[in-house]
Amino acid sequence: MTDAATDDGAALGRGDVALVTGSTDGIGAETARNLAETGATVLVHGRDRAKGERLAASLSGDDHRFYAADFAEPAAIRDLADAVCADFDRLDALVNNAGTFQSERHLVDLPGSDAGVELTFAVNHLAPFLLTNLLADRLAATGERRASDAPERERDPARVVTVSSDLHRGTELDLDGVRGPDGPTGMDAYGHSKLANVLFTAELARRLPDGVVANCCHPGVSPTTGLTRDSSRFMGIAWKLYGVVGGALGRTDSAAESAETPTYLARSPAVAGVSGEYFDDREPVTPGDGATDRDAQRRLWRASAEWVAIGEEEEVGAERAQRA
Ligand SMILES: NC(=O)c1ccc[n+]([C@@H]2O[C@H](COP(=O)([O-])OP(=O)(O)OC[C@H]3O[C@@H](n4cnc5c(N)ncnc54)[C@H](OP(=O)(O)O)[C@@H]3O)[C@@H](O)[C@H]2O)c1
Fold it and tell me: Whose CA is closest to atom 8 on ligand 1?
């Protein structure tokens, strides 16, 4: 890990637990490494069991574990949340990092939407939406414990970090476009899913109780990762080529460099009191216009809750949302 991610100490440590989704590879794997270096137990997640178990075994410290769940399947996300809650009585940080880029339009069946929902949106937004809601009580209880177990941690809450992208800029919420066979694909669908990450974070921050904060970020540009692994061959080659050219021109980041801001948000005491913000290079910045629209934040939350069929008792902060 670079000095940039460590220079202000760590709010995580031995005995703490952090779940990093999509940590079998790329930015998530580097983030998992950084969080494990604090002594915390890291829960590695992805679909590729062999890769995930190898990564968990390679992290510094012990008790790290791998959990498999396909984020295109809401039932698998529910199983993941249940397993984490059964295995650990605390959750100090949840890093929503898993993401996909799809060239073609594929639909996912969801319990609350008969039209089917576009896969990029389902994996990049609906999955972290559902997972965060299901784990919110555990995060909140951990936030309380952190304050009472160690008074110096009073302002050191549990954290939710969602990895978005600057490609959300220039897009606006389009809930019709994510349903059914017709609608945006490729970069447009990806940018829209990353807009949803920012809208979600703003609404989540209003709904979370004291003791839990939520922020999101642009991690950087790292064409060396496997982000296009499930897209077309053409897109895969273009992404790699961009990596070579961008790397030679010094315009891209390594996966380790791109893990710095998610790491910072998950473990730095400097951002313990910050919630609902969009970060770039460890600084809060104003996100795109489409992400600051309060009505869009609410509409996205309502549609997401309906489509993943989350129960009222499972939904975080419904009362707080009405007051805010
Ligand atoms: N790379 C960039 O330049 C860049 C820029 C801005 C934002 N981001 C964001 O950064 C995050 C990490 O991306 P990355 O570039 O590091 O890509 P990556 O190397 O492909 O990593 C993506 C991770 O997500 C997991 N994943 C993908 N589809 C999944 C699914 N259906 N269910 C469960 N897990 C799934 C993958 O694990 P398995 O294959 O094991 O499932 C992998 O661990 C993403 O949210 C991406 O949108 C990346």
Answer: 165
